[in-house]
Amino acid sequence: MSELTTIVGFMAGFVTTAANLPQVWKTYRTKSGEGLSFRMLLGLAIGVGLWIVYGIMNRLLPLIVTNAVVLLLILSLIGMKFKFDRSPTKD
């Protein structure tokens, strides 16, 4: 893989990874995952997991690294959704 291709791959991965940060921060800050679709998050996690496998099979480091970070962010959203949405309401 050429150096330029690797740089572009990491840049693309960085941007798409960073796009998830506002949702993670908002969910953590508000302590609510009410607006998040569990099915969407699960589908996204499976898809990103498959991208990681694809990256491993083709030895594409930018795909592996950035999707691993995205998977962690998605799993954190799923965890927060379960934690915050199953808590009793504070009246």
Task: Describe the structure in your own words.
With 91 residues, this protein is mainly α. 78% of the residues lie in helices and 0% in strands. The longest helix is centred in the last third of the chain and has 25 residues, at 61-85. The chain has a domain at 1-12 and 36-86: Monooxygenase, CATH 1.20.1280.290.
What brief labels describe this structure?
mainly alpha, Monooxygenase, 4 helices, elongated
Per-chain topology:
Layout: H1 3-18, H2 21-30, H3 38-57, H4 61-85
Task: Summarize the structure in short.
Helix content is 78%, strand content 0%. It has 91 residues and is an all-alpha fold.
CATH topology of one domain: Monooxygenase
Q: Mind telling me which CATH architecture of one domain this is?
A: Up-down Bundle
The computed structural class is: mainly alpha
Helix tally?
A: 4
Distance separating the two termini: 57 Å
Shape: elongated
Poorly predicted regions: none
Helix and strand run: HHHH
Cα Rg? 15 Å
